UniProtKB/TrEMBL annotation:
Membrane spanning residue stretches: none
Coiled coil: none
Residue ranges of domain PucR C-terminal helix-turn-helix in the record: 463-521
InterPro entries per record: CdaR-like_regulators (IPR051448), PucR_C-HTH_dom (IPR025736), PucR_C-HTH_sf (IPR042070), PucR_dom (IPR012914)
Taxonomic placement: Bacteria, Bacillati, Bacillota, Bacilli, Bacillales
The protein's name: PucR family transcriptional regulator
Length: 538
């Protein structure tokens, strides 16, 4: 199935019985999608590529030197070839033109006697249009059968088999979680070789293989691949590939919605799991019933805080976020168990892979959510996440839930430098939260840092910035001056001021540790507007 013909096929038509192939013999396989009669020597703006040009040479009859740039134009615009009538206006073709055409495998066909260009264009256009009509009819028929299948199929295998039978070539689907399936089945080593070949098509064109991304919610979910050992792929194959990829996306999205509805019904059980009401054995028994093939090595809880529902932020967004989370996290090896509580979406993330890489995989999923084109910064505005500690015993998920709530609360107190969704990364902030809860943290910070803060306020200085940078550079004056973009002498002057305000021993081990802790506490207090206003009233 194709909507074009080749130069080789055209040469077998009746009007070409007496034609002569003067140059570009190697270009007989070139595709022809349309035929133009041209007598002008400036035609670049008129061509789109794959046209066969018919001419009598009228445009250069008085100046044969115009023929060479004319042929260059045709080659540059990817025309399929040129047919020229010898005798009326042109007696011969210069050797330099023949050489150029041979170098680019550009066919030049001669008519030694008068031929009816009108009849030629009518004949060839009829073939091309009939092929296009047949192509469209076949595609429409395939699409109708495919849409009918979507109402009945229970597994994507049936769609792949339907496509494979229709095209009679190897079909392959590659999921983002590194799983793949071939229709028909092939040996494991052959399958791996085919996957490697397909992955190489990112950098180079393979005429016998093509892949199409399957998008769900604007994000890549899998790739559909077709491959033929017998022939090169044509336009029809690529359209069928595209239609099938779209159908698979609809099928997968429908499955996700069905799964989402199912998990909503499981919400009561999930909440009892979060509350620690079930043992590890009871949980695994429940999971073996609802997910027979599922094997979890551990789990963690993620809480997503969404902005309050408004007209602009409808309840549909919750379904969107749940589907987005499921898509992203399943691709990195997690089984998702979601539930909702007021403005929060709570996800138990069951780990199906090695526990050693759980945090890296989860961070990758968060990055993809935040960088998603469909999600966008505007849509993510006001959304916060908190991830609890990782537990190996599924009965201990309540511990992860509790720590996830703590991590979510601490998000407001984190600076951009210390930003992290993970409870285990918030070491000092957890301690600061406890201290603030049970003592007067503001007074403790003032005790250590008030002289420096007052100096900066009074003289518009930068001693606090200098102190932080100096400590981070482990007392290296050269590195500190580079990071602050100041000369060494200016740094020495600031350090003298710090010694007068904090004491000569501020870089000694225990005192330095206390000052570093107070600097962190100072940032913690300034992170909320309430504490910021109180602090600057000193």
């Amino acid at each position: 199935m194709k909507s074009f013909i080749t130069i080789e096929e055209i040469l077998r038509r009746k009007y070409f019985n007496t034609s002569e192939m003067l140059a570009g013999e190697e270009g007989k396989k070139r595709l022809v999608k349309w035929v133009h009669v041209v007598e002008s020597t400036q035609i670049t703006h008129l061509l789109n590529g794959n046209e066969l040009i018919l001419t009598t040479g009228l445009g250069w009859k008085d100046d044969e030197t115009l023929l060479l740039p004319f042929i260059k134009q045709l080659i540059d615009t990817h025309a399929s070839g040129m047919c020229i009538e010898i005798g009326a206006h042109v007696s011969e073709i210069p050797q330099e033109v023949i050489k150029l055409a041979n170098n680019h495998n550009f066919p030049i066909i001669l008519f030694r006697q008068e031929v009816p260009f009108v009849e030629i264009t009518h004949d060839l256009h009829s073939i091309i249009i009939n092929k296009q009509y047949l192509l469209i009819s076949k595609i429409e028929s395939y699409s109708q059968e495919l849409n009918k299948m979507l109402l009945e199929v229970n597994h994507y295998d049936q769609i792949l088999k339907f496509m494979q039978n229709y095209l009679d070539m190897q079909v392959l689907i590659l999921f983002n979680n590194q799983e793949y399936k071939a229709i028909p089945n092939i040996r494991e080593d052959t399958l791996k070789q085919l996957v490697e070949r397909v992955n190489q098509t990112k950098n180079q064109t393979d005429p016998c293989a093509c892949k199409q991304s399957i998008q769900i919610l604007g994000e890549p979910y899998a790739e559909l691949v077709i491959y033929s050992q017998q022939r090169e792929l044509n336009e029809f194959d690529l359209i069928i590939l595209d239609r099938t990829a779209t159908a698979l996306a609809q099928h997968f999205l429908r499955d996700l919605y069905v799964e989402e509805k199912k998990t909503a019904e499981e919400s009561t059980w999930i909440r009892s799991w979060l509350d620690g009401e079930n043992s590890d054995e009871a949980i695994r028994n429940q999971l073996s019933f609802s997910h027979p093939r599922l094997k979890l090595h551990g789990a963690a809880v993620c809480i997503c805080k969404l902005p309050p529902v408004t007209r602009k932020n409808s309840a549909v967004d919750r379904t969107y976020f749940k589907l987005l989370f499921r898509t992203m996290f399943e691709q990195v090896g997690f089984q998702i168990f979601p539930t909702e509580m007021q403005h929060h979406l709570i996800f138990i993330l069951g780990d199906k892979r090695s526990p050693e890489s759980w945090k890296e995989r989860m961070a990758d999923a968060f990055d993809r959510i935040n960088n998603s084109e469909r999600t966008g910064r505007k849509r993510m505005s006001g959304v916060a996440f908190g991830v609890g500690k990782y537990v190996f015993n599924l009965g201990d998920i309540y511990k992860s839930y509790k720590s996830a709530k703590e991590a979510l609360v601490l998000q407001d107190s984190l600076t951009d430098e210390n930003k992290s969704y993970f409870y285990q990364d918030l070491h000092m902030h957890r301690i600061l939260s406890l201290i603030k809860e049970h003592s007067n943290l503001e007074e403790t910070v003032k005790e250590y840092l008030e002289p420096v803060i007052l100096y900066d306020q009074q003289f518009n200085g930068e001693l606090m910035v200098t102190l932080k940078t100096y400590l981070r550079c482990n007392g290296s004056k050269q590195e500190t001056s580079k990071k602050l973009f100041i000369v060494r002498q200016t740094l020495y002057h600031r350090l003298e001021k710090l010694e007068k305000l904090l004491g000569n021993d501020f870089m000694k081990s225990e005192r330095r540790l206390a000052i570093e802790f107070m600097l962190l506490a100072h940032d913690y207090l300034l992170s909320t507007e309430k504490h910021s206003l109180l602090w600057y009233e000193i």
